[in-house]
Amino acid sequence: MLQRYWLGAVLALGVLTVPAHGQATLEWKFKQGETFFLEEVRTQKQVMFSQGKTFKAEPEQTIVYEITVKDVNPDKSVVLEEKIAGIQFKNAAGGSPEEKFGQQLQGAAFKLTLGPDGKPTMLEGYADAVKKIAGTDEQARKAVESIQSEDGLKRLAVQAFAFLPSKAVKEGDTWEQEFNSNQGPLGSFQVKRTYKYAGKETVEGKEYDKVTFTAAATYTPPKAGEDSPFLFKVTKADLKADGVAGYYYFAAGDGRLVRGEEKMKITGTATFVISNQPVDTGVEQDQTVRLRVVDKNPLAK
Predict the structure, then answer these.
(1) pTM value?
(2) What is the 3-state secondary structure of the chain?
């Protein structure tokens, strides 16, 4: 009788833990000791209007992170070593902080702890890495942080590791996520994403699970009186973000992100101070952020 009871309980638990027909379980599968590369490419198409003049720029920044799984804990939290394995800038203004400090950031390493839900709970080593590059120079410190901020590392972790649902989903199911998106001297946006499981899709001959998203973004202007590492500072801004949307392709069998993309259009006005002269400016900016996970460093020569 007892054996029959235990057998029934085990079978019942088995039924409860197996996803129903048509459902998908999407979760990262970290293996202790494995190494992979996470590439983040940020592009901007920027137009600024001031005093009858128009300025256009299309900067692009690529950062490749070499990620090694140090520990996988029983509660599914993980400890990652995150090393900057390559930085590349295109169309950057000559003499910019990016050009000056970008190469010095290569090799900087951090220890990132992710909770069972994939969200970052601890980031170690950032302050030491910045101090090693900038020393006691406050302006240099801010310049380095403008290229790779601590908040930016945490946001990247959220976007790459914590976008997945907390339970099995079927096509059409939705879930939400919130995080801060720093825009450097222009302030920041508090972003609330709504994800949707879009089912299976074949890409380049391989079938992946597709997750799409849209988002609402609430703007926060830069702090008044804050110093800037640039040749200008922003004293006032009023911006809005529209058309925030994107997608992810996820390989459920491997438990790994394949690639993702987010697009956002920012419009509004900002007052820049250059050589103590305020300049009122109209701003239009199309941002695209692309992520992908690969086995080899795409910037390695």
Answers:
(1) 0.84
(2) CHHHHHHHHHHHHHHHHCCCCCEECCCCCCCCCCEEEEEEEEEEEEEEEECCEEEEECCEEEEEEEEEEEEECCCCCEEEEEEEEEEEEECCCCCCHHHHHHHHHCCCEEEEEECCCCCEEEEECHHHHHHHHHCCCHHHHHHHHHHCCHHHHHHHHHHHHCCCCCCCEECCCEEEEEEEEECHHHCEEEEEEEEEEEEEEEECCEEEEEEEEEEEEEEECCCCCCCCCCCCEEEEEEEEEEEEEEEEEEECCCCEEEEEEEEEEEEEEEEEEECCEEEEEEEEEEEEEEEEEECCCCCCC
